[in-house]
Sequence to fold (162 residues):
Amino acid sequence: MAAFAVAALVCIAFPMPPREADEQAAHGFPGWPVQFEGEAIAEEPLSEFEKGFAKSFPGKIGRFRSGRRIVILRWTTRLTHRVHGAAYCLEATGWKIEPRPLEARADGAWSAFRATQGGKTLHVREQARDASGATFADVPAWFFSALLGRSVGPWWIVTVAE
Fold:
């Protein structure tokens, strides 16, 4: 309960910027990459859930396949509460979430978790990256760094499920 109170105070003390230029910001979109971690990626249609979420997202959302992996890319030019960790979405749709240790990789640390539902298991990892190349292993670290002016966009938020 105390964490909720702190979060509410932060939102009041540091209100979100107006949504005025979300459409204009999309004009600065650099386009989707053609590779991810050295492998070609192929764009796939967004799921109905992802389409609904994308309608009010201040930026771009893309879904890609790279071999067995699904790669979700989110690109935004502004701090937003519409970016939250994949664990929340999966849990809300009935998946059981088991946190895993951070994964140290050449491109920085990634948060990780195991998601299971109906006999299916996914290993999921997530990372955010800002315009200067700084990485954040989870969405809260990215959000509060940006909120306090320590990170400047645009930002890429990457989720990988395999």
